[in-house]
Each structure stands twice: as C-alpha cells, then as structure tokens.
Amino acid sequence: MIIAQTALNPLLEASSHWRHDWLWGCPLIVATVTIHVLGLGFISQRAIRIFGNTTTKYRHQKASFVSIMGLTTLCATALHGIESYIWALTYYLLGALPDMKNATLYSLGAMTTYGHPNLFLEGRWQLMGAIEALNGWLLFGLSSAFLFWLIQEVSPNNQADG
Fold it and tell me: Of 21-30, 110-119, 142-151, where does mean pLDDT reach its minimum?
C-alpha cells in the first residue's frame, strides 16, 4: 500500500494543480466554440445574401465570388483573434502571464499550435496552454468546414444558368 501511494503521489499532486487548468479551460472552450458557431452563422447569412444580390446584378460572378470568400475569410480570422484574446485576458487575470502583450502573443501561439518563443505560463497554469491548443484545433476545424461549405454554396460553378 505504501509503495502504491509513493508511486501515485506525484500524479495526484500534479492532478490537483491541473484541476484548475481544466476548470478554467473547459468553460473557455465552450464559450469560444459558441462564439465561433454564432459568428460563422452570422457571417454565412450575410455572405450568401451579398453573393445572391451581386450575382443577380452583375455579370462578374467570379470576381464577386473571390471578393465574398476573401471577406468571409477575413471575418473568420477576426473571430479567431477575438477568441484568442479571450484566452489571453484569462491568462493575464489569472496571473499566468505578466502583461496583455505577452498573454496575447502566447495565446495566438498556443491556439495556432505555432508556438511561443520564450513565453511560458506560470508553472501551475501550463496545462492550460495545451488545452487552448485543443480549442484551436476545434475552432480551426469549424472554420475549415465552414469555408469549404461556403465555397460549395456560392461557387459560380455551382450556380444555375439564368
């Protein structure tokens, strides 16, 4: 019994620190995914409406398609920036990073899994960076699926001849 306690003690101590990471990370994942889905829904409604109006009025469907896709991609990127900023603000408020500049840089690096040169979360919050990377995978997957769907919806190649 003593051997088992000795062997498991480091894991139990680590998991007690990690509990806080999960308690903060999971609601952040839910919040950012909700923001992302609502934002993409709003963007898709506007993009389809704008594309429908431009293709009925103008003969340059391909130029309209490129413009709509470019603007939509920019809006989806802005959503990622907002969501990353939410994580950065949380890091700063928890004291995991010293200032918002470093927190924002760290958060963008974690969310994109690009990395973060010479920036590290305070020891007890380090798992939160990996949790944010998981969140980034989910958000980028949603964005990729959304952009692929929108291409199918508004592509001039898929439009019926009028």
Answer: 110-119
Q: What confidence tier does 156 reach under pLDDT thresholds 50, 70, 90? A: confident
Dihedral of CA 135/124/109/102: which sign?
A: positive
- Output the six-digit token pair for 58: 């103008």
Task: State the Cα–Cα distance between residues 129 and 116, nearest whole angstrom.
Answer: 10
Residue type, 153: E
Nearest by Cα to 110 from 89, 90, 92, 137: 137
pLDDT for 55 beyond 50: yes
- Residue 3, both tokens: 């051997």
- Which residues lie closer than 8 Å to 131 by C-beta, 6 or more apart? 21, 22, 25, 26, 28, 29
Residue with tokens 């999960």: 22
- How many angstroms separate the CA atoms of 125 and 20, rounded? 8
What pTM did the predictor assign?
0.82
Q: State the first-to-last Cα distance of the chain, in angstroms, to the nearest integer.
A: 79
